[in-house]
Amino acid sequence: MKKVTSALLALTLLLSLAAGALADGDAEPAAGMDTLAAAVEAAEPGDIVELAGGVYEPEGGVFTLTKPVSLAAAAGAQVEFRGAVVYDLAGTGAAGEVTLSGIRFTAVEGQECAAALVSGRGRVLNISGCTFTGWRYGAAVYPDCRSCKIRVSGSVFDTLCALSFAGVNGNGVLSADSLEPAVYALCKYDGEQRAFFHRFDASAAYEDADFAPGGDFEAEYPFAALLRSAQGYEFCSSLAEAVNKAVSGDSVWGLRGGDNDAVAAIRPGVTVYIREGASFGETIENYGILYNSGKVNAVTVVNSARSLVRVTGAPHGLDIRVTDTAGREYVSEGSRGEYMLAPGSYTFTFSGEGWYTAAKNVTVTADAAQSVEADVRARLSFSDVEAGAWFYDDVYAVYTSGLMDGVSETAFDPYGGVTRAMAVTIIYRLAGEPELPDANWGYPYADVDAGSWYARAVYWARMNGIVNGTGDNTFSPDAAVTREQLASMLYRYASLAGADTGHEGSYEGFSDGAEISEWAREAAGWAGDKGLITGREGGAFAPAASCLRCELAAILVRAGDVFEK
Questions:
Q1: Helices marked H in 99-223
Q2: pLDDT by residue (tens digit) across 399-426?
Q3: What string of H, E and C letters represents the secondary structure of 211-258?
Q4: 522 φ, ψ to 5°?
Q5: Beta strand 137-141 with 161-166: parallel, antiparallel or unpaired?
Q6: For residue 432, how far is the Cα from the chain centroid?
Q7: How far apart are CA 172 and CA 154, in angstroms?
Q8: Measuring CA to CA, which of 19, 94, 443, 499 is 20 to 30 A from 395?
Q9: Cβ neighbours of residue 346 under 8 Å, at least 6 residues apart?
Q10: Helix runs in 147-203, H state only
């Protein structure tokens, strides 16, 4: 009896998958493939393993099953398989079906066919509700199979050929309702012989058919070349016509001989496949990628001059990925970060642990060396500073510039208060941490230990009139700094730094201006006029309230222009 293992049973039976939801685009393919392999290993022949929503990427681009176990997307799940599924069922006993259901198969480099039955006897490869994108072949039955069939229902084939099968040993197509938008519905091959058919007729006995069955079928490339672009497929009367029309991201198949002269050049980002007797009639310039199948007439190709592109400013540990508009990836040549690229458009993507991903679009010109700067930002490690928070950019700026530290390696404490010791230390850093004279400073405050982390900053601030004590020869380093105290400290520092302390605004511009202490009113008016302190809800200055760490980060960023001399 066929057993279906659902996601709810995964915890106890280990037969279901947990690759992560596809909605946020952040699935963990490796973990998904490990779980898939374990599920298939635990399954019995005839079982169905249900796949949770996610992206699955098998190592090497192919996942091989050696027992007749079916794979099906769980109800409502979006499942993408970036790679091929291959059934190698030699010696597995009795005939029966294996099913692939509800899966989107996306083409990967190095694999031509998405779903294949490569060996077995009397098996049916059942394709139901699947989508195939970018493949040469959608589903196939290989010559080592005997009396094996393909059955298709409710599936979409955005491929060159939807179904392919070996016309030997009784293999064939059992049924198929629609094979669009594949260029060819069917490819039948037997040894070196091969035939492509535009349409599929479920009533035809393909396993017994001739390679050119006549009737409504057209076989053996009824056109010279095929152009595949973002707009779809276009049949061309010559290879030259297809290549001259192709732009970056397009693919061209040269399928048979003909008038293929007058090819100007293969443009950057264009891929050309030459097959079975097709050839260019002259030497061409190749700025793209050219595949010669080995069965074609000799082709002389002049590769274009390439230019050196060097990546600068890439921190250690940063990953660099270079792709063209067709998504093809290029590797560095020589030193890390040096690329020899043909003229065209490329995207340089920078990523890595501890860095935000950044991308730059670059146009490479012929014979002109150029540099691309890896302009990346370090990723904040603070779990309490969300990327969407209003203060995120401010915290990032003050942290990366060294003005403020976190309270730990993983926390910034944005809503925590700022102590007087913190405030003075940050202003000291803002001033560039100037050296203090080597004379005996004395101890102006009884509660400031000369060995404390904030001692130098406090002494510097005291010597330069930035701060006053809190009375009785004390500084109160651990007390929260109030907003009016901070405004006064910044105002005095601005004067020391030679910054503009003139202002037209007044403390009376705040809704609670009357509550501001008389000694802080001048500083409050200046801070408001310069936009350093914008007020809290209702335009209140909140003079006696503690300044929050996120507020201080924002104030320091706004102060950047103010303190310029």
A1: none
A2: 878 888 888 878 899 999 999 999 999 9
A3: CCCCCCCCCCCCCCEEEEECCEEEEECCHHHHHHHCCCCCEEEECCCC
A4: -60, -45
A5: parallel
A6: 39
A7: 19
A8: 499
A9: 309, 322, 323, 324, 325, 330, 361, 362, 363, 364
A10: none
Rg (CA), the chain: 35
Q: In sequence order, what are the beta bridge partners of 87?
A: 65, 117
Q: Which two structure tokens, joined as six digits, stand for 470?
A: 């809190």
Query: Which position has the token pair 């290993």?
Result: 41
For 238-283, the pLDDT digits (tens) are: 888 888 888 877 888 776 655 555 666 787 778 787 754 566 665 6
Starting at the earlier edge strand, list the strands of the sheet with 344-352.
329-330, 319-324, 344-352, 355-364
Q: How far is CA 513 from CA 222, 224, 505, 559, in A?
A: 86, 83, 12, 22
Asked whether the CA dihedral 178, 66, 114, 215 is positive or negative, the reply is: negative
For residue 246, give every residue at least 6 positions away whose Cβ sits within 8 Å of its Cβ, in sequence order, or none: 227, 229, 252, 266, 267, 270, 272
Query: If you ran DSSP here, which 8-state letter would residue 166 be given?
Result: E
Q: Which amino acid is at 141?
A: V
Could you say which DSSP state residue 306 is in? -
H or E, element range at 497: helix 483-497
Beta-carbon contacts of 31 under 8 Å, excluding residues fewer than 6 positions away, are: 18, 19, 20
Query: In the beta sheet, which residues pair with residue 172?
Result: 149
Partners of 471 in the beta sheet? 474
- Partner residues linked to 186 by β-bridges: 163, 197
CA distance 403 to 397: 9
SS3 category, 165: strand
The partner residues of 310 in beta bridges, in order of sequence, read 338, 371
pLDDT in tens, 19-71: 333 333 333 333 378 889 999 999 999 999 999 888 999 999 999 999 999 99
Positive or negative CA dihedral for 405, 411, 413, 419? negative
How many residues in the chain? 565
Strand order in the sheet with 338-341: 338-341, 307-312, 370-373
Distances 518 to 27, 507, 515 between C-alpha atoms, Å? 59, 10, 9
**Residue type at position 338:** E
